[in-house]
């Protein structure tokens, strides 16, 4: 068993994630808390707190409270935090939804989570309306004003709710992000107030911020990395958060230059652009102190190349939705090429072989993790929970790793079959099931193919039914019309037969070896 080399921290208990996140608001007052990057629209810490209390009051007037769930489907804008924490302050639960999902994917999440209110923006209203049909959703809210639809302005007229509605912070689900497993549709990850507050506190020795730090928030708040490390973690530490609704290199460089950004949270494809794109030289990026990469492994070579070009630290961490999300990260000044850093405070980990035996230094095995950041379980899925967290509280990550003599962890492979496309999870089983609904397809298999820009891209192998005809483009378009953009099949190959074991399991290793 490996314990953290970092000092233990005092884990918060009995404090809601909203009270914890807003803990510096009164002290910071008129300091910018959130800035909309494209427009420059600014929200101070005082305005952030007031907005959250007003939204919480409006939700409470609607009967929203403990046991209620709000779906939040929006890009990164300052008001995201207002509705997220408004729902939490009212004692409810938030399920964060990818706004690029198809209506069918949104419907699944709304049904599974039991959401009764769906908050979005005008751009996604049509999808929201279609997805909400037949679900428990009774009201759709657009953050920006739209005729005939309640908006943020309608929520600001209610009496504010100034105190946290009492909740059991250890067990009450405050957020239900959805994480894809290897067996089809995504599962709701139950994270409590204590899970979230604990993980931000656990990161205090690896994510060290100064009073004047400004961070660029491109990574989506609906994803656990953006939600916790960026939105909640940065605000709780008094940083100014500059939001961008999507990644655009030119706009990101403009924002860095204009707002003197010091922290840039990224994923490997963004680091690749920073390292190689000629446009970077046209902007002043000298204020950058740290580029922090996560969500997928960053190669040592790419990290070093970006570091040399930008003249700042380029480091990475490791985590997963089920870990709220961080378990490993780089200590400032102690980066090691290719490493995801060291075990964070108050966290234990093991490297285990297939028989469950513990392995030693530099031996590859499955990474197991135990700590206060481990989820409560999967929503409505006891079987998946039991398969992921054992009786002793160890979360089996499904990732293959080794730990060196200095306590640094290196993620080398995945036991689970998830494809990581630009940091987003793509479950092969979901795409395989969808491909089999095409009238010409007899069998299918999907694997991840390494890609410099995306990390991995989904590649499908197809066998056609006897006498059936279909082009690769036709099948790819068929899939594209039913899934989010990051789940689309980027490559397709026809085979006479999908290789399988005697038990019928797809032999993905053979497909990768092709």
Give a written overview of the molecule:
This protein is an alpha/beta fold. It has 2 domains: 14-19 and 27-400, Rossmann fold, CATH 3.40.50; 419-513, ANL, C-terminal domain (GMP Synthetase, Chain A, domain 3). It is 28% helix and 24% strand. The chain contains 16 helices and 27 strands. The strands form 6 sheets. Strands 3-2-12-11-13-14-15-16-17 form a 9-stranded mixed sheet, with helices on both faces. It has a 5-stranded antiparallel sheet with strand order 1-18-19-21-22, with no helix packed on it. Helix 11 (268-276) packs across helix 12. The longest helix is centred in the N-terminal third of the chain and has 17 residues, at 45-61.
Give a brief rundown of this model.
By secondary structure, the protein is α/β, with parallel strands linked by helices.
Spell out the blueprint of helices and strands.
Elements: E1 2-3, H1 17-21, H2 25-28, E2 32-36, E3 42-44, H3 45-61, E4 69-72, H4 79-89, E5 93-96, H5 103-113, E6 117-120, H6 125-132, E7 139-142, H7 152-155, E8 173-175, E9 178-179, E10 187-192, H8 193-202, E11 214-217, H9 224-236, E12 240-243, H10 249-259, E13 263-266, H11 268-276, E14 290-293, H12 300-310, E15 313-319, E16 326-329, E17 342-343, E18 348-352, E19 365-370, E20 377-378, H13 382-388, E21 395-403, E22 409-414, E23 419-421, E24 424-426, H14 428-435, E25 441-451, E26 455-464, H15 472-480, E27 491-494, H16 508-513
Parallel strand pairs: 2-12, 4-5, 4-6, 6-7, 11-12, 11-13, 13-14, 14-15, 26-27
Antiparallel strand pairs: 1-18, 2-3, 8-10, 9-10, 10-20, 15-16, 16-17, 18-19, 19-21, 21-22, 23-24, 25-26
Helix pairs in contact: 3-4, 5-6, 11-12
